[in-house]
Amino acid sequence: MPPHPTAAASVPGGEPVAAADEESPAARRLRRLSLHLLQPSVPSAAHASSPSSSLVPAACAGRRVVEGGGDVAAALTAYLRGRHRAAQMRLYDFFCARPDLQTPVEMTTAAHRELCFRQLRALVRDAGVRPLTLMANDPAEYFAVMEAAGGADISLGVKLGVQYSLWGGSVINLGTKKHRDKYFDGIDNLDYPGCFAMTELHHGSNVQALQTTATFDPVTDEFIINTPNDGAIKWWIGNAAVHGKFATVFARLILPLQGKGGEPADMGIHAFIVPIRDLETHAVLPGIEINDCGHKIGLNGVDNGALRFRSVRIPRDNLLNRFGDVSRDGKYTSSLPTINKRFAATLGELVGGRVGIAFCSVGVLKVAVIIAVRYALLRHQFGPPKQPEISVLDYQSHQHKLMPMLASSYAFHFATVQLVDKYSEMKKTNDEDLIADVHVLSSGLKAYITSYTAKSISICREACGGHGYAAVNRFGALRNDHDIFQTFEGDNTVLLQQVAGDLLKQYQEKFKGGTLSVTWNYLRDSMGTYLSQPNPVTARWEGEDHLRDPNFQLDAFRVNKLSPQYRTSRLLHSVAARLQKHSKTLGGFGAWNRCLNHLLTLAESHIESVILAQFIESVKSCPDEKTREVLKLVCDLYALDRIWKDIGTYRNVDYVAPNKAKAIHKLTDYLSYQVRLVAKELVDAFDLPDLIIRAPIGMQSEAYAQYTQYVGF
After folding, report:
1. Residue 460 contacts by C-beta under 8 Å, 6 or more apart in sequence?
2. 238 labeled part of a ligand binding site
3. Which residues are designated catalytic?
4. What is the distance between the alpha carbons of residues 270 and 112, in angstroms, rounded to a whole number?
């Protein structure tokens, strides 16, 4: 517990230090440090500007019960619940009532695959869910169902996504009425399990370089699907190894004799429906070779396979022809004039996959944080002499690990809810500006959130000590199953470049051979005055009210197209100058590569600003005053922790003076302590049932009893 604030204090492990008026400078610093280590304190208004003010220890929170804690959790839960929470609860109840569908801690790859398919079939046929109908009519409910399925087993969530977001989504988004009429019901009711065959052995992110071909034969009115070399084998194709009967195959559409000089014409990447197994016997069809990609680091409930095609013939109608079609006489038509425009339109229709991955990654983060925080509240280690041990969450180091992570889970929740809402509106309106916004936002949030979640799971495991290493406590499975979220539906580094490219879109003219003058003048005019010299007065402001002001936080983070703010604007300004410099000697591609790390930092900065802006808006929109106060506390911790982690950037350009940097650090520690006081309520507010948490150390009650029972006592 905290020391009594007398004139003398003890240095841990040493003798009492003399009274303050007799202390040497070194002893005085040690005394203050000992108080600070035991408990952070927030600067009072009277002392906020005085660097020599004494630290005032706060009461230890080890046994503190937040007044009205249950009410806080209930109010938070009510605010966090989306429109489709009832649909999620129905699925949770369904799986809870079906022990035969619950994934055990240990099982073979083959058994996990079969269980995962039974889970999906039961969800569709027994629970009555129609995911493809939901995706077409109410994407928000579809993503809620996907999150719930992933809570039961992440492999199930991914397998559902392969069947409906990818295979089904490609048919309804890239095809036309004839395809929807023929395939929609069979996909929806799982009669037609299918695959999404885009990635090849030699190409993943660079989709335009895929080598599989689809050559039109005007004699038979068919396309001939062919794998020209080993590098073109379709690889990592979900549902292919065991269960899939169809595949959407991405291939180069080749028209014989229609190129220059009678050469074949390559019309670019198109999507084709290719049957791969017999609907009745499930035998692999002639000309198709399927091999199993084998046991993986995680997601072993998903059967990934490799596909080779040897002159496989399909009807001309199997071309998904929304953006390009071939007539009976072999003539190509499209409403889009170039290969690049058709390619962009095709990939743009598949953005829902990234939306789902970002949304579900937040669900994984919530589970990891809940387990770690509940265990940290349960676990007691050490304490003052001759007094009870204290909760490990009362240690400042533990608060530093987990409380900003808890704040981030709230920030990401609101950001991805907004993303889903925008995606739903985009599908209704087909508004071009909204399409562009969702493309960039989904790219950035998917990359940023999945990377953060992957790192956080390991931190949570470490925070739970040896018990975190037990498979039953789930961190290993969460880490392994989630890890690939950073890669599929777009490699995170590639996606962040898309965000940076949007922020620097005027540079695209240079990459096509244009000039930089327009871009340079824009940057100079819009940012020059703002960035020339930070305000020396505000750079030194360190009062709590100022640091917790949303306007200060957004100003430090953000840039938008009309009002450039500080950090992202500084990055944008500097990377533009570097690109201009290097393009003269290296060309557009070389300049981009030389500045790549800078561009990635720019993209991450922008996404952080988007997340913070939405968090602030969500706090303002909360109708309950007490709940709003708690969310404001969490939001402030999220913002100031991010600023502190990038404090070098602000200090290097004198945006933050040394005294202000210290105040930010101290306030961040204090806010972590304050969030710790409501940590139980914050994790309980996620309202995830024990079936989803599953880890004994993460249970709301009798955690140790469940843990000992699991191992046989």
Report:
1. 368, 369, 371, 372, 402, 405, 468, 475
2. yes
3. 489
4. 34
Number of H helices, E strands in the chain: 27, 11
List phi, psi (to 5°) of 540: -105, -10
Q: How far apart are CA 346 and CA 174, in angstroms?
A: 7
The token pair at 600 is 């990635």
| Residue 73 and residue 95 in contact, taking contact as beta carbons nearer than 8 Å | no
SS3 (DSSP) at 260: helix
SS3 192: coil
* pTM confidence score: 0.85
Using the Cα atoms of residue 460, residue 455, residue 419 and residue 489 in order, give the sign of their dihedral: negative
199 is in an annotated binding site: yes
Q: What is the pLDDT of residues 295-329, one digit of tens each?
A: 999 999 999 999 999 999 999 999 999 999 999 99
Backbone angles phi, psi at 333, to 5 degrees: -135, 150
User: Tokens for 498?
Assistant: 């898309």
For residue 540, the number of C-alpha atoms closer than 13 Å in the C-beta half-sphere is: 5
Q: Domains along the chain?
A: 79-189 (1.10.540), 196-339 (2.40.110.10), 353-696 (1.20.140.10)
Q: 670 is written with which tokens?
A: 């204090």
Sheet strands side by side (includes 304-309): 234-238, 304-309, 288-292
10-residue mean pLDDT series, the chain (713 residues): 36 37 51 46 42 40 44 90 91 96 96 98 97 96 96 97 97 96 98 97 92 97 98 97 98 91 92 98 98 97 98 98 95 92 86 94 98 96 93 96 98 97 93 89 96 97 96 96 94 92 63 42 43 51 87 73 50 79 87 86 90 96 93 97 88 81 94 96 95 93 85 88
pLDDT digits (tens, 9 = 90+) for 365-402: 999 999 999 999 999 999 999 999 999 999 999 999 99
Of 422, 393, 490, 291, the residue nearest 61 (C-alpha): 393
- Only one residue has tokens 């591609």, namely 589
Helices (H), 61-152: 69-80, 85-96, 109-125, 131-137, 139-152
Long-range contacts of residues 639-644, Cβ cutoff 8 Å, at least 24 apart = 639/550, 639/553, 639/557, 639/612, 639/615, 640/547, 640/548, 640/553, 640/664, 640/667, 640/668, 640/671, 641/404, 641/407, 641/668, 641/671, 641/672, 642/557, 642/608, 642/612, 643/553, 643/556, 643/557, 644/668
Cα 254 from Cα 250, distance rounded (Å): 12
Q: Which two tokens stand for residue 232?
A: 């073109």
Return d(Cα 542, Cα 668) in angstroms, integer.
12
- The rounded distance, in Å, linking the Cα atoms of 354 and 351 is 6
Q: How far is CA 121 from CA 149, 158, 247, 328, in A?
A: 12, 14, 19, 39
Tokens for 510?
Answer: 């240079």
Residues counted in the chain = 713
